[in-house]
Amino acid sequence: MKLKRMYSYLKADIDLIEKELKAATESESRLLEEASQHLLQAGGKRIRPVFVLLAAKFGDYNIQVIKQVAVALELIHMASLVHDDVIDDSELRRGQPTIKAKWDNKIAMYAGDYIFARSLEYITKIENPTAHKILSSTIVEVCIGEIEQIKDKYRFDQHYRDYLRRIKRKTALLIAVSCQLGAIAAGASANIHKKLFEFGYYVGLSYQITDDILDFTSTEKELGKPAGDDLLQGNITLPALFAMRTPAVKCVIEQVHEKTTKEEMTHIIKLIKETGAIEKSHQISQRYLQKALLALQTLPDRREKKSLIDIANYIGKRKY
Amino acid sequence: MKLKRMYSYLKADIDLIEKELKAATESESRLLEEASQHLLQAGGKRIRPVFVLLAAKFGDYNIQVIKQVAVALELIHMASLVHDDVIDDSELRRGQPTIKAKWDNKIAMYAGDYIFARSLEYITKIENPTAHKILSSTIVEVCIGEIEQIKDKYRFDQHYRDYLRRIKRKTALLIAVSCQLGAIAAGASANIHKKLFEFGYYVGLSYQITDDILDFTSTEKELGKPAGDDLLQGNITLPALFAMRTPAVKCVIEQVHEKTTKEEMTHIIKLIKETGAIEKSHQISQRYLQKALLALQTLPDRREKKSLIDIANYIGKRKY
């Protein structure tokens, strides 16, 4: 089943959010508008807004309120992508030139700042200080994660827990908070929004691990960037960490630097695959997926719960 | 009279805010903490916190509440400085190496993001959605101003209104909002916080114009960076705009580029001064100062009103 089919009953609301995202990136500054909308048009799964909407269905769902939260979460995600691309010197995202590639690093820095500021403007449209507080604390964590990611680059002696801490901040928290804030903004009870946070958190970990696996197993066409790009950029992900438990492979991986060629990378990817690191990573991803599903158990049985389960399972199996 | 003497009765509270700023820049990430505290220790007038506190005195002053607002405003200002230094390739700020100089542009980008996120965390400590909304909208405007500043660099055919729009967003709004939010967080009535906003807005314009004058009239030692640096960076400020009304000087200014030497700049500064542009700029600054003082007239007569008047006058006369 295709991802969008899993929540087809939300189509009208998701279309509305896409329109709101476009409106949110309009600006008096043509340069900012062009840069932001360039990123917006490159697409994306909009998985955070989907989680916001689904979570809100467990409370008193009012799309006029919930859309502000959904837009805010997607914008924060977008802003972090823009700054990530500066740090990673990424030329392509979703098969399109990144803002830093199409304009430059400086424009990308301020475009990221702008999208970020816009997201705050959206969240403050709901007059819920708790929601504001949760979001701002989450952003602090995301920023710490980002700077730690710079520090951990090409640091081959790092541990599994360093990786987990990074993907927690990089991905899991924002997905968890998407679920949590959707429920909170809809006035759902604490036992519901806590479980949804937990669900989002584990789904986020599973999602990021799958993403990190796909960076090694997908083709350049599927990824919209060369395979092995994470490693090339010095981002040591779970498959690389597992593969480095084989000393000979560790020795090869430790030689990776910015100028490693595509041919060399193809060889390294082959070596990594031969260690069984992909399967091991997949098992960890599955384990978090099970934890995510477990978190949903006590939630009331409704269509949206089924959608969350379907999406979680999809994330566990997705090929790109 | 020295600036600090004008509000010496606030000393204990200002010391508390300095401590809070230090606490706010502590981080699990040593790199982020070092970078943020490096900037903090370089000092600064902390004029935004001072305005927050003084404005709050027109309402129900509770330092435990107000300090959150004061810290938030100073942090936003700091974050914008960090990103500005990346854009302007500035090596020195307040006589100290900038974060981008001491570390690099990428660290500076995330350090700015982090300080920015921290400021949001502080403002959400006061459970006042109106305050959150005002601040986030202000940040959007500041970001637009920053990107417009990039676009306007070395654009010698710009107008007075382009300059005003830029300094409004760059400086005036954040000072206006410091005054406004101080009053709002202290529960002051609308007629009070609106007048304080107006006061801050005009003080901010006057302050920035004075700053832009000093960039031409101060020594390298006073500025902590070479004189004429704004123009060298392509930031066309009011004295340059006025000087360009003299065709021969316009012709010389239009030749300025990144590689213009210190000797050439000394000559250009001399030419600018000879046109009377400094005096004209000073007159405009004074005009805004008068508007600022006028905004205070209807406020109740109290010690803090006197302080605001003194600070405004100080800003009009300051030499560095």
TrEMBL record, chains A, B:
Segments traversing the membrane: 171-190
Highest taxon in the source lineage: Bacteria
One Pfam family from the record: polyprenyl_synt
SUPFAM superfamilies documented for this protein: Terpenoid synthases
MF terms (GO), sorted A to Z: heptaprenyl diphosphate synthase activity
Coiled-coil annotated residue ranges, if any: none
Keywords: Magnesium, Membrane, Metal-binding, Transferase, Transmembrane, Transmembrane helix
InterPro entries, alphabetized: GerC3_HepT, Isoprenoid_synthase_dom_sf, Polyprenyl_synt, Polyprenyl_synt_CS
Enzyme category, top tier: transferase
Required cofactor names: Mg(2+)
EC number, UniProt record: 2.5.1.30
Family indicated by similarity: Belongs to the FPP/GGPP synthase family.
Protein name, UniProt field: Heptaprenyl diphosphate synthase
Biological source species: Bacillus chungangensis
